[in-house]
Design a protein that fits this description.
The complex is a heterodimer of chains A (168) and B (179).
Chain A (H helix, E strand, L loop, with lengths): L4 E2 L8 H10 L9 H9 L3 H14 L2 E8 L8 E9 L1 H12 L4 E6 L11 E7 L2 H15 L3 E15 L6
Antiparallel strand pairs in A: 3-5, 3-6, 4-5
Helix pairs in contact in A: 1-2, 2-3
Chain B lengths: L34 H9 L10 H9 L3 H13 L3 E8 L7 E7 L3 H12 L4 E7 L5 E7 L2 H15 L4 E3 L3 E3 L8
Antiparallel strand pairs in B: 2-4, 2-5, 3-4
Helix pairs in contact in B: 2-3
Classes of the chains: A alpha+beta (168), B alpha+beta (179).
Chain lengths: 168, 179
């Protein structure tokens, strides 16, 4: 994937794609031929399952195929949303640079809600301690330099709800 | 109802408060992993092949055999290290929409309003965060109107404003949670 930014152009999906999404969104079967198992389940050929998944992956409708670890179980207990007030005309370039840092899991530009909320870049940081996350914040601050007017970090105190994507 | 306050620039971090139990935290502490498990977790967060025998292909790249890779993944699920294995769909590209939003709730009303927010089927994620804006959640639906009407409903029933933070741009991130 070469793009630095994903746009949000919708990918057209048909009824068969929706069945495929419904059959795989909670996971692939852990068997030697998982795509064949899915094909049997939804009544299409395995080759078609693979072709449709490839197309959705290339179009960005699938972000990636792989495993999703539980951050907490891996010891990543300090999870913070760092937020940054930078000038509008530099926000996109700086957001791209923040996104490339290897401790950032998500990075977005969002609207400010002035005067209470001046921040426009949001970067999620994960570490094994708050000290580690604080060091990441400093690294971002150094990267932004004088472009950073204000920042904050909002640590998570707990997940109250987390449901996977459900597409019907 | 007080509005949210502007925070001082580069606020100093206060010492961490006692950890609140997270609802979906599977374990009390980090789960020990052996070298092979680390290799699997580091190597398979993306790029799982689409093909006739994808576990065989992936196992070969990791220096394992097919059965061992499948058994290891099953084991990582059992001990709570993995939450999912498969394609991660991008709702935005599939015609859906999700919008981040936040509320500033007083402590004595927090649980009641958080439970009400959680009860809305359009609310996908909900986190408690340390800030005056202390409840952060994601509304997800097929249309922006449906998300907006959920937010309006939450505002009207709870009596507190919902601050909307729709994404204007998503930046590409490398995926690399190393263990």
């Amino acid at each position: 994937m070469t793009g630095l930014t994903s746009n949000s152009k919708p990918v057209p999906v048909d009824e068969v794609d929706l069945r495929l999404i419904a059959a795989t969104q909670s996971g692939l079967p852990l068997v030697p031929r998982p795509y064949h198992a899915i094909a049997e389940q939804i009544g299409i050929a395995a080759e078609e399952v693979m072709a449709r998944l490839t197309r959705m992956l290339e179009a960005g409708a699938i972000r990636r195929i792989g495993l999703v670890p539980n951050h907490y179980a891996l010891g990543y207990i300090a999870n913070g949303m760092s937020v940054w007030d930078v000038e509008d005309d530099k926000a996109d370039e700086l957001g791209e640079r923040i996104g490339r840092l290897d401790f950032v899991s998500h990075c977005y530009r969002r609207p400010r809600r002035p005067p209470q909320w001046p921040y426009t870049l949001f970067a999620m940081l994960h570490g094994k301690s708050r000290e580690e996350v604080t060091a990441y914040v400093e690294e971002i601050r150094a990267l932004l330099g004088d472009s950073c007017r204000a920042s904050d970090i909002l640590y998570s105190r707990g997940i109250l709800k987390k449901t996977g994507l459900r597409i019907t | 109802m007080a509005g949210i306050r502007r925070r001082p620039k580069h606020r100093k971090e206060s010492p961490p408060p006692p950890a609140a139990p997270a609802v979906k935290t599977a374990t009390a502490g980090p789960i020990p992993l052996d070298e092979i498990e680390r290799r699997i977790i580091n190597g398979l967060q993306g790029g799982f092949p689409i093909g006739e025998r994808p576990f065989l292909e992936a196992a070969t790249a990791l220096g394992l055999d097919e059965d061992e890779l499948i058994e290891r993944i099953e084991h990582l699920f059992e001990v709570g290290v993995l939450t999912r294995f498969g394609p991660l769909f991008n709702a935005d590209r599939l015609g859906g929409i999700n919008v981040l939003a936040a509320m500033a709730l007083p402590e004595n009303d927090f649980d009641r309003v958080a439970a009400f927010v959680n009860a809305q089927p359009e609310i996908a994620h909900n986190y408690r965060r340390e800030h005056e804006l202390n409840l952060w959640f994601v509304g997800a639906a097929e249309t922006p109107e449906k998300v907006e009407s959920t937010f309006c409903y939450i505002e009207s029933v709870s009596g507190y404003p919902v601050y909307r933070f729709p994404k204007e741009r998503e930046f590409f991130v490398e995926l690399k949670l190393h263990v």
